[in-house]
Protein backbone atom coordinates (compact mmCIF):
# COMPACT_ATOMS: atom_id res chain seq x y z
CA UNK A 1 0.00 0.00 0.00
CA UNK A 2 1.23 3.48 -0.89
CA UNK A 3 1.95 5.90 1.98
CA UNK A 4 -0.25 8.98 2.15
CA UNK A 5 0.33 12.53 3.41
CA UNK A 6 -2.68 14.51 2.25
CA UNK A 7 -3.88 17.80 3.76
CA UNK A 8 -6.80 20.18 3.28
CA UNK A 9 -6.42 23.80 4.40
CA UNK A 10 -9.09 26.49 4.52
CA UNK A 11 -7.74 29.97 5.17
CA UNK A 12 -6.46 33.25 3.81
CA UNK A 13 -3.26 34.31 2.04
CA UNK A 14 -0.90 36.31 4.25
CA UNK A 15 0.71 38.11 1.28
CA UNK A 16 0.61 38.22 -2.51
CA UNK A 17 1.84 35.01 -4.21
CA UNK A 18 5.43 34.89 -5.46
CA UNK A 19 6.22 33.21 -8.79
CA UNK A 20 9.59 31.83 -9.90
CA UNK A 21 11.04 29.69 -12.68
CA UNK A 22 13.22 26.67 -11.95
CA UNK A 23 16.48 26.01 -13.79
CA UNK A 24 14.54 23.72 -16.13
CA UNK A 25 11.97 26.42 -16.93
CA UNK A 26 9.06 25.12 -14.81
CA UNK A 27 7.05 27.75 -12.97
CA UNK A 28 6.35 27.49 -9.26
CA UNK A 29 4.21 29.85 -7.21
CA UNK A 30 4.59 30.12 -3.47
CA UNK A 31 2.25 31.58 -0.88
CA UNK A 32 1.40 31.22 2.81
CA UNK A 33 -2.06 30.33 4.08
CA UNK A 34 -3.16 31.38 7.57
CA UNK A 35 -5.67 29.00 9.17
CA UNK A 36 -7.59 30.49 12.09
CA UNK A 37 -8.36 28.11 14.96
CA UNK A 38 -9.88 30.65 17.32
CA UNK A 39 -13.31 29.02 17.58
CA UNK A 40 -14.16 25.69 19.15
CA UNK A 41 -16.68 23.20 17.64
CA UNK A 42 -19.53 25.05 19.39
CA UNK A 43 -18.53 28.30 17.62
CA UNK A 44 -17.27 29.97 20.81
CA UNK A 45 -14.20 32.18 20.65
CA UNK A 46 -10.95 30.71 22.01
CA UNK A 47 -7.75 32.75 21.81
CA UNK A 48 -7.19 35.52 19.27
CA UNK A 49 -3.66 34.25 18.58
CA UNK A 50 -4.59 30.66 17.68
CA UNK A 51 -3.52 30.76 14.01
CA UNK A 52 -1.37 28.31 12.02
CA UNK A 53 0.66 29.31 8.96
CA UNK A 54 1.35 26.88 6.10
CA UNK A 55 3.72 27.42 3.18
CA UNK A 56 2.23 26.25 -0.12
CA UNK A 57 3.82 25.56 -3.51
CA UNK A 58 1.70 25.34 -6.66
CA UNK A 59 3.40 24.19 -9.86
CA UNK A 60 2.93 24.97 -13.55
CA UNK A 61 -0.62 25.95 -14.67
CA UNK A 62 -2.11 25.69 -11.17
CA UNK A 63 0.59 28.03 -9.86
CA UNK A 64 0.16 30.42 -12.77
CA UNK A 65 -3.58 30.67 -12.00
CA UNK A 66 -2.82 31.28 -8.31
CA UNK A 67 -0.38 34.04 -9.24
CA UNK A 68 -2.90 35.61 -11.61
CA UNK A 69 -6.01 35.58 -9.42
CA UNK A 70 -4.93 35.49 -5.76
CA UNK A 71 -3.66 38.30 -3.57
CA UNK A 72 -3.09 39.03 0.10
CA UNK A 73 -6.26 38.26 2.06
CA UNK A 74 -7.76 35.96 -0.59
CA UNK A 75 -9.75 33.09 0.92
CA UNK A 76 -8.71 29.69 -0.43
CA UNK A 77 -9.14 26.00 0.16
CA UNK A 78 -5.92 24.13 -0.64
CA UNK A 79 -5.65 20.38 -1.07
CA UNK A 80 -2.26 18.77 -1.44
CA UNK A 81 0.56 16.61 -0.19
CA UNK A 82 3.04 17.33 2.57
CA UNK A 83 6.71 17.44 1.66
CA UNK A 84 9.56 17.70 4.13
CA UNK A 85 12.78 19.33 2.96
CA UNK A 86 15.93 18.55 4.98
CA UNK A 87 19.34 20.21 4.91
CA UNK A 88 22.40 20.96 7.00
CA UNK A 89 23.57 24.44 7.88
CA UNK A 90 27.16 25.58 7.31
CA UNK A 91 27.72 24.68 10.97
CA UNK A 92 26.53 21.11 10.35
CA UNK A 93 23.21 21.46 12.18
CA UNK A 94 20.24 19.57 10.75
CA UNK A 95 17.22 21.61 9.68
CA UNK A 96 13.89 20.74 8.09
CA UNK A 97 10.76 22.45 6.82
CA UNK A 98 7.40 21.01 5.81
CA UNK A 99 5.56 22.51 2.82
CA UNK A 100 2.25 21.77 1.16
CA UNK A 101 2.53 20.85 -2.52
CA UNK A 102 -0.88 21.89 -3.86
CA UNK A 103 -2.84 19.54 -6.10
CA UNK A 104 -6.01 21.68 -6.01
CA UNK A 105 -6.60 25.30 -5.01
CA UNK A 106 -10.17 26.55 -4.77
CA UNK A 107 -10.49 30.32 -5.01
CA UNK A 108 -13.13 31.20 -2.41
CA UNK A 109 -12.85 35.02 -2.70
CA UNK A 110 -14.66 37.03 -5.35
CA UNK A 111 -11.88 39.62 -5.66
CA UNK A 112 -9.47 39.44 -8.62
CA UNK A 113 -5.87 40.56 -8.78
CA UNK A 114 -5.67 44.08 -10.19
CA UNK A 115 -3.84 44.34 -13.52
CA UNK A 116 -0.22 45.32 -13.03
CA UNK A 117 0.91 48.54 -14.68
CA UNK A 118 3.21 47.91 -17.62
UniProtKB/TrEMBL annotation:
In terms of InterPro entries, this protein maps to: NA-bd_OB-fold (IPR012340), Primosome_PriB/ssb (IPR000424), ssDNA-bd (IPR011344)
This protein's GO CC annotations = nucleoid
State the Gene3D superfamilies in the record: Nucleic acid-binding proteins
Which CDD domains does UniProt cross-reference here?
A: SSB_OBF
Question: Which Pfam families does the record match to this protein?
Answer: SSB
Q: Which UniProt keywords apply?
A: DNA-binding
The keyword DNA-binding is annotated on this UniProt entry: yes
Q: Which GO terms describe its biological process?
A: DNA replication
Q: Name one GO molecular function term.
A: single-stranded DNA binding
What subunit structure does UniProt give? Homotetramer.
Question: Which named protein is this?
Answer: Single-stranded DNA-binding protein
**Which lineage ranks, top first, belong to the organism behind this chain?**
Bacteria, Pseudomonadati, Spirochaetota, Spirochaetia, Leptospirales
